[in-house]
Amino acid sequence: MQREATYGSSGKITTFGVSVWERSNISIRVTSIDWGVLSPGENKTVSYFIRNDSNFRTTLELSTESWNPANASDFIFLSWNLENVYFDIDQTSVAIFTLRISPDIHGIDSFSFDIIIST
User: Fold this and answer.
1) Phi-psi category of 50—alpha, beta or left, where left has phi over 0 and alpha has psi -120 to 50?
2) Which terminus in the chain has less CB density within 10 A, N or C?
């Protein structure tokens, strides 16, 4: 009998030159993502709105840090749809974040990490 494992998670968002919003009308700011409970091999996608708050046209960069446990980044991968996309001043676009859990994950029953979005 195969037993399926589940993993709790969360992610704190830090931004530089941009802001993240729940709705397109820029009314509810997002500072963290609760990815919920995930299983090995699962992908989960969430959508938010990203606004360029800087005073110049720019591309955005997505990175992660402060993984807990540290080896979680070997099995958990974050991506988005805005890599190499130019943003004009005050432009808002839909950001689709995808978290992928490796089917080979082991030894991790919960995790957290920081999401960094910068210009």
Assistant:
1) beta
2) N
The CATH number of domain 11-118 is 3.40.30: no
Three-state SS letters, the chain: CCCCCCEECCEEEEEECEEEECCCCCCCECCEECCCCECCCCEEEEEEEEEECCCCCEECEEEEEEEECHHHHHCEEEEECCCCCEECCCCEEEEEEEEEECCCCCCCCECEEEEEEEC
Cα radius of gyration (the chain): 15
Closest CA to 95 of 77, 113, 78, 112: 78
Domain ranges of the chain: 11-118
pLDDT surpasses 60 at 3: no
